[in-house]
């Protein structure tokens, strides 16, 4: 008789939970792995919900793995909600009445939309946009309406605006700050996004917040009132003001220490034995310098899932996010960022910014003001940069002039696209004539 | 999971101008039916050219309204909701009409007489002889590539790669596959297509064709035989080594040209499942083997003055022409565009594609690079792949895409919202290596 195999139970089938499952399957082929999700039977890409709405993809197309994949890799899927945690008995209760015993438990419960207790936020036709049921509600509630108000000048805000716009519904965007996504984009970059907003004829109110949502006699939204006192008639309101960790399950175990999220150490261990947390729901007690305690990104969810699987498999690995990167697309404008690229002026850091005089193309390179002039980060708009090259330059503290002279190596635009290295270097040489640089030969196109 | 129709609301009604353009297309098709029905030569002429005019104006007008009137960028709204592009009733009707046209064209051309006669004048001025069903087919084919090519140019005008590639297929279809063969006939030379080679144009290396070209074309005929053999055995491996299969399949080939232009609205219909990939391998390589065998047997038989095989090899060639050359490449390949996507023939049947694919996979510098860890698994790349490659499986692992079937159309790279994919020719060393920025055990854990 053999002992029962090691059993990992994962709560949540988002990218963090699934990455952990796949990594553990590779490290421990014999382990039993159960993935519990109340949202959907199969893992799907949350990032792609907008494309389902716009009709670019079907729901089946946003599943990153075909349905046979789970059975072939012996990953047991349980489509039900986990309702209570019993750490003493190493068990989890499920809403279908069953319980699961675990040798290790990963909490990857993700996020939920964060609202700010606005008057009227309970009205029909008011929602956030995070999961499948949000998409269903959206689909149902905005059909046939004339105008929807989107609150929030961030990534989800502009996604919602694009979704409504694609259906001929006017989205009106309320942005708290002076410009779009002011937590991540310097004013010049934000101005390019604003151009996209204008080009698509999206009305936008900067410096404006939501004060209250007004309903009609049937309890449906009919208008919003802004902090500027303006009343805007609308039939739907999207609240895209961020997300917070989903702690519903975590709160059922009083011994599990939480703050904003589930508190974890660098090995993604919680305060309970054999219980781990990863992804949006985890809060790092001691985030590394320059990093935030709660990371709510696809990429970090994947990295945390991969890392925690090593610890669970008995090969303890601290979570090291590595050099930051992110990307987005604002209507037709692509955006990529690498490394340290702060919005506000930062001590010891300068930046060189170039923008095409006619096209929607811009590049900002951050560097240390000290003699080293080590490059620390990039913002690229309308221009694709090679992740590996940017990462290497940042890691090796390559001086700005070297990076500019070799900029072609970082270009990731398709063949035949206009190249901007020469113009960028010319602009730099004009701005810094004492450091004028000569450009290296172009990356060869064909060979 | 909820059904797709709950997640994406019905499409809004078409605008009046859009309806007018579509009506013109429908009226053009009706005009062709009237031409078929009318025995009067004079009226035939009128119906026929009025129909072609309406088809042209309608298609160009529709493209201009749908793409030209919007900001340049990826435009796929409603792709999976519009009946004509999501296997709805309109798609089935289109498929039946196309299939029916091919059946009549191949086996009952007499029924097309009323459509052929109006082309006599044009045929005389181009080829110095009356029109036949193949001239009608060539005219329709070239017109489809030109009109839908214009549509593709509008749709993809934000991508210089797509624009140049589209112009290339339009040029090769019009010049090399339509005008040049016509002019050769005008000057009493053998009709020859310089842009088709063995094993796609299998009979170009059959003893009978070689004999005919040399006997009837004198020096030019000898050059044609030399050209065909040199393209098949010398130029193809060399060009594929440097650029991958794309130099032919998505830049030059007429079948590819039709798929990239007229077939563009259907590219997402290619089946991405593993099961479809298995069928692809099971079918395409045996067909490639079969045509090699038949060609070899024909030469063997010729060398032995019909003693060795009698009429068997000739019969085999006839059967191959019937099943593969006519039914597979024509009736199924194009007729099923609206159901199975635009590359059914190229993916499952074309022996040239099999040959190019083997070279591309094993002896080429071509690959599609994945940009570090930037993939968000959204699925747009896989959806856009006309060859049914699940591109996302590679991208989300940070792996480059090296697949025999990839025709290098580049649409995966064009539609990627995060700038993750790029078609590149580069050194063969490390061509298959995945990015180190994505797996925990390769970078963040060990370093």
Automatic annotation (TrEMBL), chain A:
<dbReference type="InterPro" id="IPR036188">
    <property type="entry name" value="FAD/NAD-bd_sf"/>
</dbReference>
<dbReference type="GO" id="GO:0016491">
    <property type="term" value="F:oxidoreductase activity"/>
</dbReference>
<keyword id="KW-0274">FAD</keyword>
<keyword id="KW-0560">Oxidoreductase</keyword>
<protein>
    <submittedName>
        <fullName>FAD/NAD(P)-binding oxidoreductase</fullName>
        <ecNumber>1.-.-.-</ecNumber>
    </submittedName>
</protein>
<dbReference type="Pfam" id="PF07992">
    <property type="entry name" value="Pyr_redox_2"/>
</dbReference>
<keyword id="KW-0285">Flavoprotein</keyword>
<dbReference type="InterPro" id="IPR023753">
    <property type="entry name" value="FAD/NAD-binding_dom"/>
</dbReference>
<dbReference type="InterPro" id="IPR050260">
    <property type="entry name" value="FAD-bd_OxRdtase"/>
</dbReference>
<feature type="domain" description="FAD/NAD(P)-binding">
    <location>
        <begin position="7"/>
        <end position="292"/>
    </location>
</feature>
<comment type="similarity">
    <text>Belongs to the FAD-dependent oxidoreductase family.</text>
</comment>
TrEMBL record, chain B:
<keyword id="KW-0249">Electron transport</keyword>
<feature type="transmembrane region" description="Helical">
    <location>
        <begin position="134"/>
        <end position="154"/>
    </location>
</feature>
<feature type="domain" description="4Fe-4S ferredoxin-type">
    <location>
        <begin position="398"/>
        <end position="426"/>
    </location>
</feature>
<keyword id="KW-0411">Iron-sulfur</keyword>
<feature type="transmembrane region" description="Helical">
    <location>
        <begin position="166"/>
        <end position="187"/>
    </location>
</feature>
<keyword id="KW-0408">Iron</keyword>
<feature type="transmembrane region" description="Helical">
    <location>
        <begin position="283"/>
        <end position="300"/>
    </location>
</feature>
<feature type="transmembrane region" description="Helical">
    <location>
        <begin position="88"/>
        <end position="108"/>
    </location>
</feature>
<feature type="transmembrane region" description="Helical">
    <location>
        <begin position="47"/>
        <end position="67"/>
    </location>
</feature>
<keyword id="KW-0479">Metal-binding</keyword>
<keyword id="KW-0004">4Fe-4S</keyword>
<feature type="domain" description="4Fe-4S ferredoxin-type">
    <location>
        <begin position="366"/>
        <end position="394"/>
    </location>
</feature>
<dbReference type="Pfam" id="PF13187">
    <property type="entry name" value="Fer4_9"/>
</dbReference>
<feature type="transmembrane region" description="Helical">
    <location>
        <begin position="219"/>
        <end position="242"/>
    </location>
</feature>
<dbReference type="InterPro" id="IPR051684">
    <property type="entry name" value="Electron_Trans/Redox"/>
</dbReference>
<dbReference type="Pfam" id="PF12801">
    <property type="entry name" value="Fer4_5"/>
</dbReference>
<protein>
    <submittedName>
        <fullName>4Fe-4S binding protein</fullName>
    </submittedName>
</protein>
<keyword id="KW-0813">Transport</keyword>
<keyword id="KW-0472">Membrane</keyword>
<keyword id="KW-1133">Transmembrane helix</keyword>
<dbReference type="InterPro" id="IPR017896">
    <property type="entry name" value="4Fe4S_Fe-S-bd"/>
</dbReference>
<dbReference type="InterPro" id="IPR017900">
    <property type="entry name" value="4Fe4S_Fe_S_CS"/>
</dbReference>
């Amino acid at each position: 008789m053999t002992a029962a195999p090691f059993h990992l139970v994962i709560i949540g089938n988002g990218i963090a939970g699934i990455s952990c499952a796949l990594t553990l399957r590779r490290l421990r082929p014999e382990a039993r792995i159960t993935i519990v999700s109340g949202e959907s039977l199969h893992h799907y890409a949350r990032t792609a919900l907008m494309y389902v709405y716009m009709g670019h993809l079907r729901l089946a197309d946003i599943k990153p793995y075909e349905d046979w994949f789970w059975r072939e890799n012996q990953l047991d899927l349980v489509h039900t909600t986990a309702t209570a945690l019993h750490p003493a008995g190493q068990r989890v209760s499920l809403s279908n009445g069953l319980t699961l015993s675990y040798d290790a438990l990963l909490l990857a419960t993700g996020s939920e939309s964060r609202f700010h207790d606005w008057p009227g936020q309970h009205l029909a036709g008011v929602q956030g946009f995070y999961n499948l049921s949000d998409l269903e509600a959206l689909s149902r509630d905005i059909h046939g309406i004339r105008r929807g108000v989107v609150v929030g000048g961030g990534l989800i805000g502009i996604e919602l605006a694009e979704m409504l716009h694609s259906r001929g519904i006017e989205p009106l965007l309320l942005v708290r700050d002076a410009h779009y996504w002011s937590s991540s984009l310097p004013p010049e970059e934000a101005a390019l996004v604003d151009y996209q907003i204008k080009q698509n004829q999206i009305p936008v109110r900067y410096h404006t917040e939501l004060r209250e949502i007004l309903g009609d006699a049937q309890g449906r939204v009919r208008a919003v009132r802004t902090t500027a006192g303006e009343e805007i008639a609308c039939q739907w309101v999207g609240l895209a003001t961020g997300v917070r960790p989903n702690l519903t399950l975590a709160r059922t175990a009083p011994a599990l220490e939480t703050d904003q999220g589930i508190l974890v150490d660098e090995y993604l261990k919680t305060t309970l034995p054999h219980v781990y947390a990863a992804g949006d729901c985890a809060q790092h007690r001691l985030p590394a310098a320059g990093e935030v305690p709660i990371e709510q990104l696809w990429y970090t969810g994947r990295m945390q899932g991969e890392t925690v699987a090593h610890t669970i498999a008995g090969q303890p690995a601290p979570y090291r996010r590595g050099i930051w990167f992110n990307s987005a697309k604002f209507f037709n404008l692509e955006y990529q960022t690498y490394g340290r690229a702060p919005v506000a002026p930062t001590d010891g850091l300068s930046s060189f910014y170039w923008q095409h005089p006619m096209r929607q193309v811009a590049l900002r390179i951050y560097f240390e003001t000290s003699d080293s002039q080590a490059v620390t980060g990039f913002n690229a708009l309308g221009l694709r940069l090679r992740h590996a090259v940017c990462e290497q330059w940042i890691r090796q503290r390559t001086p700005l002039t070297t990076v500019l002279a070799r900029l072609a190596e970082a270009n990731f635009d398709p063949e035949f696209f206009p190249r901007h290295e020469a113009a960028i270097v010319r602009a730099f040489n004009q701005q810094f004539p004492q450091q004028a640089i000569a450009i290296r030969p172009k990356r060869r196109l064909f060979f | 999971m909820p059904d797709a129709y709950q997640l994406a609301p019905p499409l809004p009604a078409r605008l009046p101008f859009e309806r007018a353009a579509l009506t013109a297309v429908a009226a053009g098709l009706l005009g062709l039916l009237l031409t078929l029905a009318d025995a009067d030569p004079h009226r035939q002429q009128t119906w026929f050219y009025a129909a072609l005019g309406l088809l042209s104006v309608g298609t160009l007008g529709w493209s201009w309204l749908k793409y030209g009137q919007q900001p340049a960028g990826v435009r796929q709204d409603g792709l999976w909701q519009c009946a004509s592009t999501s296997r709805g009733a309109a798609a089935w009707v289109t498929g039946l009409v196309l299939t029916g046209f091919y059946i009549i064209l191949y086996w009952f051309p007499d029924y097309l007489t009323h459509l052929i006669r109006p082309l006599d004048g044009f045929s005389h001025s181009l080829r110095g002889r009356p029109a036949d069903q193949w001239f009608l087919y060539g005219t329709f084919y070239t017109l489809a590539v030109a009109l839908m090519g214009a549509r593709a140019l509008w749709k993809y005008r934000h991508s210089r790669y797509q624009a140049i590639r589209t112009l290339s297929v339009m040029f090769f279809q019009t010049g090399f596959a339509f005008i040049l063969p016509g002019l050769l006939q005008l000057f009493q030379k053998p009709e020859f297509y310089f842009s088709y080679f063995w094993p796609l144009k299998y009979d170009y290396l059959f003893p009978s064709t070689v004999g005919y070209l040399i006997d009837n074309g004198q020096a030019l005929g000898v050059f044609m035989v030399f050209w065909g053999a040199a393209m098949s055995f010398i130029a193809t491996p060399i060009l594929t080594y440097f650029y991958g299969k794309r130099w032919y399949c998505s830049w030059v080939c007429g079948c590819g040209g039709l798929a990239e232009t007229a077939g563009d609205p259907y590219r997402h219909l290619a089946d991405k499942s593993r099961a479809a990939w298995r069928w692809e391998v099971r079918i395409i390589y045996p067909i490639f083997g079969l045509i090699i065998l038949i060609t070899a047997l024909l030469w063997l038989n010729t060398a032995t003055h019909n003693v060795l095989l009698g009429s068997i090899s000739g019969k085999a060639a006839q059967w191959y022409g019937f099943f593969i050359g006519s039914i597979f490449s024509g009736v199924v390949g194009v007729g099923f565009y609206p159901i199975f996507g635009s590359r059914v023939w190229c993916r499952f049947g074309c022996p040239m594609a099999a040959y190019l694919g083997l070279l591309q996979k094993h002896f080429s510098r071509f690959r599609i690079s994945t940009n570090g860890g930037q993939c968000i698994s959204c699925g747009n790349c896989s959806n856009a792949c006309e060859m049914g490659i699940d591109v996302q499986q590679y991208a989300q692992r940070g792996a480059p895409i090296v697949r025999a079937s990839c025709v290098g159309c580049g649409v995966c790279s064009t539609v990627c919202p995060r700038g993750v994919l790029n078609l590149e020719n580069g050194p063969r060393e490390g061509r298959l290596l995945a990015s180190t920025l994505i797996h925990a055990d390769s970078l963040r854990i060990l370093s």
